[in-house]
Design brief:
single chain, about 160 residues, alpha/beta, 4-stranded parallel β-sheet, binds 4-nitrophenyl phosphate
Amino acid sequence: MSQPILFVCLGNICRSPAAEGVFRQMRPGHPVDSAGTGGWHVGEPPHGPMQVAAEARGYDLSPLRARQFVVADFDRFDLILAMDDQNLAEIKRLQPVGNTSVLRRLTDYAPEAGRDHVPDPYYSGDFDGTLDLIVRAVRGLCQSLDEGLDQGPDQSLR
Ligand code: 4NP
């Protein structure tokens, strides 16, 4: 069974579309999407430098378009992966009582990286470092999906 996965960041033009593009390539056909908690860039393609960095590694982000996270996403996605604690707190705030979607940090899937969030390259300019971390974590995510561990303990309350 393929549990639909949603990657969430702030603008949906850097980190979460990169995670979506990497995941799409690693798990073709698995239901996946990305969204931003903010709406400033709705309808835009991923940020140019993010696309260039991803393209250099063979990930094509060009078909993706930004959209804002909506409460209905809790009905569509079993696993919602946030890039940082700000995104996580915002989606947790919006989660309807009784909804069973699992909310986690993407970095939970790369514990060896020793990071508790994916830093925002929109501000840092480090698009390559961002991709390094995202690729590691998405690999870990795929491994946990293979092992059936994706519905593990909800880490959002740590
Ligand atoms: P993202 O980066 O959350 O990784 O897409 C951002 C891009 C744009 C803005 C914030 C974060 N912004 O405020 O415009």
